[in-house]
Structures are given as C-alpha cells and as structure tokens.
Amino acid sequence: FYKALWNTIASGQVWHGELINRRKDGTCYTEDMRITPVRDSHGETVSYIAIKRDITERRAAEESQRFLASIVECSEDAIVANAPDGTILTWNRGAQALLGYTAQEAIGRHVSMMISPEERAHAAPFIEKVLKAHAGSQREGLLIRKDGRRVNACITASSILNSAGEAVAVSAIIRD
Length: 176
Known about the structure:
The chain has helices at about 1-10, 55-75, 95-100, 105, 120-135; strands at about 15-20, 30-40, 45-55, 80, 90, 135-145, 150-160, 165-175. It is of the alpha+beta class and about 180 residues long.
C-alpha cells in the first residue's frame, strides 16, 4: 500500500485514498487523504502537501445505513416507500413475493397499481393522514397482485422525516 502511495507521489502525481491512522491518544480513525507533490521553479519535487480529513463518523453512518437497508431488503414483510404524490420509491423482496412485481417494475409507478379499484379512493387520504400525523397509522385494504389475484392486507404506514423534521415520504409495511 505504502509502496504504491510513494511510487505515485514520487512520480509527480497526486495520490488520493483512505487509510487507517492513529491519533496521539492511540485510538485509530479512518482518514481520507490527498498528497500532492510541491515543485520548485525547475520542476523538481521539493516537498509534499497532505490534506487529511477524518471520515470515521461518515464511514460508521454509511455502514449503519447499509445494515438497515439489508434488514429491509431481507424482510419477508413487504416494505414499500412512496413520495407524497404516491410515486413508489423503494420496493423490497417481501413486496415482490406478496404482490408479484419486481422492484424494477414497481419503482417510479404510482401506488394505485397495487390497490384494488374500490380501495383507490382511500389511498390519497391515507397517505395525507400519515404525512400530517408524523406517526404511524394502520388500515386494512384490498390489494391486487401483478397476476390479478386479490390480497387482503394490513398496511402499517409511517411518515419519513428529513433532517428538518418535514415529512418527505411514507414507509409502509404490508402483511397478508
């Protein structure tokens, strides 16, 4: 690793990468680093400038996000998220098993694609209620699978809030 780093900067190129470093107190942290050769007026490398950034917290947050995404994807429950206008944003394997649509077929379409015609009038008010309440809400409804079969489902929905506390989406867990 260090041989490649030194070969890069010794050849006059900029090196950029991540490494584990140690603080003065002995604890380790992940660091994003860019090392640039500094040249004199004759073009000879006379020193190097390293710009370093501690990315330990960012890496931990990314790992946590991957972990949670894995839980959702592996769940046997159908877990779907949609935008306030009803556009489907996420679709897990449980949703595919329950409703028959792949994620590629569902994402970007309106939630009405999986709601029986007689239930569609309830979809928008339910989404609005969840978005305004900033809390969970539950209802039973009749859904339609890709193959046309009907499924009686229990839908538990919650609003998804952004960092400002505004509801930006709805997450629903759907069970047969």
